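sorry for the late reply, my laptop died twice this morning and i had to redo everyting from scratch. anyway the thing you sent over, i finally got around to it. pasting the sequence first so we're on the same page, its 535 residues, then the predicted structure underneath. double check i copied it right bc i was rushing
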Amino acid sequence: MMSLSRWKVILVVLAAVLGALFTLPNLLPDSAVQGLPGFMPKHRLALGLDLQGGSSLLLEVDTAALRAERLTNMIEDVRTTLGNEQIVFADLGQVNGAVSVRITDPNRVNDAANVLRRTIGTPLAGSAGGRDVNVTSGADQRITLAFVPEAFDAESARAVEQSIEIIRRRVDQLGNKEVDIARQGKQRIFLQAPGESDPERLKTIIGQTAKLSFQMVDDSVSAQEVAAGRVPPGDEVLPFSDPTEGNPLLVRKRQIITGEMLTSASAGFDQQTGGSEVNFRFNGLGGRRFGDITSANIGKRFAIVMDQKIISAPVIESAITAGSGRITGRFTSQYATDLAVLLRAGALPAPLRIEEQRTVGAELGADAVRAGTISAIVGLAAVMVFMLLIYGGLFGGISLIALGVNALMIVGIMSFTGATLTLPGIAGLILTLAVAVDANVLIYERMRDELRAGRSLISAMDAGFTRAWGTIFDANMTHMFSALILFEFGSGPVKGFAWTLSIGVLTTVFSAVLVTQVLLAWWFKATRPKTLPIA
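ok and here's the structure:
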């Protein structure tokens, strides 16, 4: 164990040099970091919400609204399917969380039930031939369509996961790459956006469902009839997002094109008016549909709808077959930019409710950084004094060198992996460094015991490492298991503490054993001592 092997020396030197290189950018100002040579690492520790300020939101996915939307879509699917089969029906609507329809002709009830079973819903995973909608026939020639409970639960879970990914894309496009998003429970999402200076804009960008659709305006019904409530079954009345654009319009419920068919969206300026606009492009399917609908409806209006509000309702002047278009209106530059962000990131599968909001000012973060720095300095100073008093300048100093290498490795690894440093993370760092010398204490005390037992100098030093190794390994493994449990089941600050502690366990074992061993072996080889200073 005490042999000065070449691979051990190379490994220790490499760990120390790499740790210093990856730690260095955290100690330099931004201008100096940008001026480093290309081969030098430029990764820095990202500061968490509690250290640099920002916004924290607790969101809940509205799965009830998701269910209501699915039921509404199912009603339109039933209407279209029975109409295509020329089956006369009545009383189509929602009843107790399901869709109910009465078939007028009793001889066509079975035909209607069979065609609805084949077309409504989607295949159910794990069930051959099964679908996520149950279709049953009842009394009075009535057919009921209801979601399979397990299928809707799975869809709700997918909605939460999809919402997390969409939120992440939206926040990333705002320029914040340090966002921390985690799921809490079945339907909640916890979001931390360090450095976000405009929490209201963040709420607007995140909370907007942003479901975009292109729907034809129905001009066959007069405004007086609409005002009187005589709305055709396949239509709906939607307001403008900007009330000054005009009165609400009657539009077809059928969504010709949806936001999922967009491939790009960007803010721009109208060359003629100088106003802001949003330019977009469709995928192949959306481009074909857009071309077909504009070709067949020249002179008519179509509505660009987002979240049940009309953004714009232009007249189709000519066929648009290029697969691209633009959204114009009385937009500000900020509104056009935010709208483009929403369209690029995609629509949320269900609305989000903000359950809790917290904002941490930058000055509070600066106070936390100062407090954490002072705590770290005081803790390290106490450890240094203890080791020097108990084990002297040589063995105590070697322990402190190993501790310094340990600190460089921890910060270097966290910088390289893009970890976010939080106040609990600083606590984990201080705890790791304070506990790191435990391994050295075990090794040194074992050496003392071996010397008292009459062993030779080299034998006592070798036994100090070999016999203390089992205890060091066991102790650090319990720390690692604890950290992994905290990381798996914790959230936010707890994860930051656990991540720092996990890295610290690995670097502690390396530095306290291997670095100390190499330094002691080099000292022994260079001086050939007759006694140990700690004897």
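The longest helix spans residues 362-416.
thats about all i looked at so far, will dig more tmrw
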